Amino acid sequence: RVRYLFMDKFIWKCITSFQSFRTRKLSKLAMFLISNGVTANQITFLSLITGIIAIHFFLNNWWLMVLFALIHLSSDSLDGVIARLSTETLKGRYFDLLADSIPVIFILVKMGIYLPDFFPYLVAGLFTLSLLVYFLSKLQTAFIPLRTAAFIVAILSTLPFFSYPFTPLMIIGYLAGGICIAYSLAKQLQW
Predict the structure, then answer these.
(1) N or C, fewer C-beta in 10 Å, the chain?
(2) CA dist., res. 125 & res. 138, Å (int)
(3) CA distance 171 to 11
(4) Residue (of 93, 113, 117, 102) closest to 151 by Cα position
């Protein structure tokens, strides 16, 4: 039997609590979309495209980044509800995780270009490695998704009232992400 650390229980409790909250709040909209032939994978594709567009505007246009990030996060919330209310598939879970993870990698790479520092690239590489291990384990190992936290850091560090992006927050963000990824990789080694 696997022993769970406090952090594992805390993370799992946060994720499941938020999933049930989203399902309660979005189930009517999801049922409407399902009845009109919209699938979870179509919403996931929308999430992926808007996430990439949001990162394109990171460090260039704060308002458009926020707009597309909100569409990305909203559609990501909705795709899971649609999947749970219709037919959830393993292929859909992989696609959803990939659509959540690609923006994280792009945010980290863009931070590395802006700062210029190699640590965001290192964190992006370790995140990609952790994601690959998670995929190869058929979603059985530990993995900490960083997408929402990465978008929060991107939005807060580039608020319009800063004359330049607030680099200390970016640095704290990618270092905190690196700690989470190191934890995921350590747990994956135990698998």
Answers:
(1) N
(2) 20
(3) 23
(4) 102
Which pLDDT belongs to residue 64? 97
List b or e across 148-166, with b for residues whose CB sees 16 or more CB atoms inside 10 angstroms: ebbbebbbebbeeeeeebb
Length of the chain: 191
**Which DSSP string corresponds to 102-140?**
HHHHHHHHHHHHHTT-SHHHHHHHHHHHHHHHHHHTTS-
* pLDDT value at residue 162: 83
157 contacts 108 by C-beta, under 8 angstroms: no
**CA 39 to CA 47: how far, in whole Å?**
13
| Cα distances (angstroms) measured from residue 153 to each of 10, 60, 106, 172, 174 | 21, 15, 13, 9, 9
Measured distance CA(35)–CA(101) in Å, rounded:
29
The kind and range of the H/E element at 25 are helix 6-35
pTM for the full predicted model: 0.86
- Residue in this structure with the two tokens 């965001």, named with its chain if needed: 120
pLDDT, averaged per 10 consecutive residues of the chain (191 residues), comes to 53 78 88 93 96 96 96 92 88 93 96 92 96 92 88 93 88 94 90 79
- The predicted structure's pLDDT at residue 61: 94
Place of tokens 């990162």: 55
